[in-house]
Amino acid sequence: MTPSVSLLVVAKAPVPGLAKTRLCPPATPAEAADIAAAALLDTLDAVLGTPRVRPVVALTGSLGDARRSAEIRAVLRRCTVVAQRGRSFADRLANAHADAHRAHGLPVFQIGMDTPQLTPALLAESVDRLAAHDAVLGPAADGGWWALGLHDPAVAAALRTVPMSRSDTGASTLRALGDRDTGLLPVLSDVDDMATAREVAAAVPHTRFAAALARLGVLR
């Protein structure tokens, strides 16, 4: 099957002290990084199970210092991996869209590693929505967004004007897309704190992510 989009994952190497620090406490830095690694691996499983996509990972951080580094490296061999570029998070997002398009010449559908509840079916349905719109945006329950799909990846430059990691980031992103025909995807929860982590783990109990939370003993 001919791929229709580059399915881009913007990811951070799960290094203790640098990944999912808002889970500490009750998690230790190493435990929080292990939870982040589990979320990344679950996300990559969903991406690699999605039909008609080119998997691309825009990565920052040192995999050599990361939890589950061998397992992550093995999965990344099945993806196109590009380094994140830019000073701000918004810059890195815009550049990642450009780099994913440069790699395969396809529209780009971008997600992060904070939604381990994603499934190949939900990703396939969301990617298919892009065929009917100039762009698609997946709102997050905290006011941000979990997905952005663009027929023209150059439009991602508009993200440079959007304040990130705020309760109005989703609304600001929608405004930055201007008068383009933008379809909205289902609302999902990003895993940013322990309360949300518990909710997501309960919804997907058979994932690595849920198992990592269970080892921490916070699901009781």
Structure notes:
- The chain is of the alpha/beta class.
- Helices cover 37% and strands 17% of the residues.
- The chain is built from seven helices and seven strands, in the order E-H-E-H-E-H-E-H-E-E-H-E-H-H.
- A seven-stranded mixed beta sheet has the order 3-2-1-4-6-5-7, sandwiched between helices.
- Strand 1, helix 1 and strand 2 form a beta-alpha-beta unit.
- Helix 1 packs parallel to helix 2, helix 1 packs antiparallel against helix 7 and helix 6 crosses helix 7.
- The longest helix is centred in the first third of the chain and has 20 residues.
- The chain is globular and about 45 Å long.
- The protein starts with a strand and ends with a helix.
Share of β-strand residues: 15-25%
| Classification by helices and strands | alpha/beta
Kindly state the percentage of residues in helix: 25-40%
- Kindly report how far apart the N and C termini lie: 44 Å
Unreliable stretches covering 5 or more consecutive residues: none
Please state the overall shape, judged from the principal axes of the Cα atoms.
Answer: globular
What is the strand arrangement across the widest sheet? 3-2-1-4-6-5-7
Largest sheet: 7 strands, mixed
Mean pLDDT: 93
Cα-based radius of gyration, to the nearest Å: 16 Å
